[in-house]
Inverse folding.
Protein backbone atom coordinates (compact mmCIF):
# COMPACT_ATOMS: atom_id res chain seq x y z
CA UNK A 1 0.00 0.00 0.00
CA UNK A 2 2.80 2.40 0.85
CA UNK A 3 4.61 1.63 -2.41
CA UNK A 4 1.44 2.11 -4.50
CA UNK A 5 0.60 5.35 -2.69
CA UNK A 6 4.09 6.68 -3.22
CA UNK A 7 3.89 5.86 -6.92
CA UNK A 8 0.52 7.54 -7.55
CA UNK A 9 1.28 10.49 -5.27
CA UNK A 10 4.29 11.48 -7.32
CA UNK A 11 2.18 12.76 -10.20
CA UNK A 12 -1.10 13.81 -8.54
CA UNK A 13 -2.30 16.29 -5.98
CA UNK A 14 -4.76 13.91 -4.32
CA UNK A 15 -5.37 10.20 -3.95
CA UNK A 16 -8.42 8.08 -3.22
CA UNK A 17 -9.15 4.70 -1.71
CA UNK A 18 -11.56 2.26 -3.33
CA UNK A 19 -12.84 -0.75 -1.44
CA UNK A 20 -14.79 -3.49 -3.23
CA UNK A 21 -16.75 -5.30 -0.54
CA UNK A 22 -16.82 -8.45 -2.70
CA UNK A 23 -13.17 -8.92 -1.75
CA UNK A 24 -14.07 -9.41 1.91
CA UNK A 25 -14.82 -12.79 3.41
CA UNK A 26 -18.58 -13.50 3.35
CA UNK A 27 -18.59 -14.14 7.10
CA UNK A 28 -17.56 -10.52 7.62
CA UNK A 29 -19.53 -9.05 4.69
CA UNK A 30 -22.44 -11.21 3.52
CA UNK A 31 -24.24 -8.28 1.89
CA UNK A 32 -22.38 -8.21 -1.42
CA UNK A 33 -23.20 -9.06 -5.01
CA UNK A 34 -20.50 -11.70 -5.57
CA UNK A 35 -19.35 -13.23 -2.28
CA UNK A 36 -15.96 -14.94 -2.39
CA UNK A 37 -14.95 -17.46 0.24
CA UNK A 38 -11.63 -16.90 1.99
CA UNK A 39 -11.68 -13.17 1.27
CA UNK A 40 -9.99 -10.46 3.28
CA UNK A 41 -10.92 -9.94 6.89
CA UNK A 42 -11.79 -6.52 8.34
CA UNK A 43 -8.55 -6.72 10.33
CA UNK A 44 -6.63 -6.96 7.05
CA UNK A 45 -8.49 -4.00 5.51
CA UNK A 46 -8.49 -1.58 8.47
CA UNK A 47 -4.78 -0.69 8.18
CA UNK A 48 -5.49 0.78 4.73
CA UNK A 49 -8.07 3.08 6.31
CA UNK A 50 -5.65 4.12 9.05
CA UNK A 51 -2.99 4.77 6.41
CA UNK A 52 -5.37 6.83 4.25
CA UNK A 53 -6.51 8.88 7.23
CA UNK A 54 -2.97 10.01 7.94
CA UNK A 55 -1.85 10.58 4.34
CA UNK A 56 -1.74 14.27 3.45
CA UNK A 57 -2.97 13.68 -0.12
CA UNK A 58 -5.97 11.50 0.81
CA UNK A 59 -9.10 13.12 -0.63
CA UNK A 60 -11.66 10.50 -1.65
CA UNK A 61 -13.22 7.20 -0.66
CA UNK A 62 -15.31 4.76 -2.67
CA UNK A 63 -16.98 1.69 -1.17
CA UNK A 64 -18.68 -0.49 -3.78
CA UNK A 65 -20.71 -3.68 -4.15
CA UNK A 66 -22.89 -3.35 -1.06
CA UNK A 67 -26.12 -5.32 -1.56
CA UNK A 68 -28.56 -4.67 1.30
CA UNK A 69 -30.92 -7.45 0.17
CA UNK A 70 -28.18 -9.98 0.99
CA UNK A 71 -27.03 -8.31 4.18
CA UNK A 72 -27.92 -10.82 6.88
CA UNK A 73 -28.70 -8.96 10.12
CA UNK A 74 -27.03 -5.77 8.87
CA UNK A 75 -23.54 -7.26 9.26
CA UNK A 76 -22.13 -5.61 6.14
CA UNK A 77 -23.74 -2.25 6.92
CA UNK A 78 -22.14 -2.35 10.37
CA UNK A 79 -18.78 -3.18 8.79
CA UNK A 80 -19.06 -0.24 6.38
CA UNK A 81 -19.87 2.01 9.34
CA UNK A 82 -16.81 0.71 11.20
CA UNK A 83 -14.61 1.31 8.15
CA UNK A 84 -15.91 4.86 7.78
CA UNK A 85 -15.38 5.60 11.48
CA UNK A 86 -11.75 4.56 11.05
CA UNK A 87 -11.27 7.46 8.64
CA UNK A 88 -12.21 10.04 11.24
CA UNK A 89 -9.40 11.71 13.18
CA UNK A 90 -8.74 10.09 16.54
Amino acid sequence: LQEATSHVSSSTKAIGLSIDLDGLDPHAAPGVGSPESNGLTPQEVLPAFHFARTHAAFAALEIVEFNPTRDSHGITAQLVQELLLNLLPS
About this structure: The longest strand covers residues 58-64. The beta strands are 15-20, 58-64.
